[in-house]
Amino acid sequence: MSETISVYPGYAQKVEARGEYIRRLLQFMSEPEVSFGAMTALLRYGRLFKHVQSPPEWLPKGPMGQCFANSARALMPYVCDKIPPYYYAEGYALEPVHGIYFEHAWLVDAQGHVIDLTWDDSENAVYYGVTFKGKFVLDAMRKTRHFGILGNVQLQNRIFKNHAAFRNVIHQPTLRSKSGRVRQAASSLSFN
Which residues lie closer than 8 Å to 182 by C-beta, 6 or more apart? Predict the structure, then answer.
């Protein structure tokens, strides 16, 4: 099963409702931000990922509690590809076993499907976040020596300087238009 949405009756509505809850949670958490910050960025540029796909055999799951490292390490072999098969994503996700929202990282394929390399029950999880350009992910983690982007204190002044700085490091997965043609939604600007 590659798409959870079609598996459970009423699941699409549950995902939308939980996604709306995440947005309200982010609004609440963004109130103390004096200027543009991680929560404001997620509200403005984040999206609800509705489709979950099981990881391919060549992308092994990593240990629990290591989502940032699991996702970043899996992305590294493809970071120099002109069109990588996956993008690194961060944001918040509802862990279905306990019903708790966590800061989380996952991969997204070109069709916008989530590939979670950490949680065992990802088919029932809800994901809301942004995707980042692979080169930026590699450079950021190499320079800071930490996994993770949104909560990485060493990156705060660099990526949350303003909206343009943040837009330059994110990548939106390809999306199908109503006509069926694939279009690229990402900014063409590069981050230096």
Answer: 174, 175, 176
Average pLDDT of the residues in 135-141? 90
Residue 153, phi then psi, degrees to nearest 5: -60, -35
Distance CA 89, CA 106 (A): 5
**Cα separation, 42 vs 23, whole angstroms:** 9
CB burial of 113-143 (b: ≥16 within 10 Å; e: otherwise) equals: bbbbbbbeebbbbbbbbbbbbbebbbebbee
Strand partners, 114: 52, 108
- The pLDDT value given to residue 10: 57
Question: Would you say 1 and 53 are in contact if contact means Cβ atoms under 8 Å apart?
Answer: no
* pLDDT tens figures, 83-132: 889 999 999 998 877 888 899 999 999 888 999 999 988 888 899 999 99
Q: Who contacts 68 (Cβ-Cβ below 8 Å, separation ≥6)?
A: 90, 105, 147, 148
**Alpha helices, DSSP H, located in 36-180:** 38-45, 67-75, 134-144, 156-159, 163-167
Q: How far apart are the first and last CA of the chain?
A: 40
Name the residue ranges covered by the structural domains of the chain.
4-183
Q: What is the pLDDT of residues 40-83, one digit of tens each?
A: 999 999 999 988 888 888 888 999 999 999 999 998 888 788 88
On average, the pLDDT of the chain sits at 81
User: What is the 8-class DSSP label of residue 36?
Assistant: S
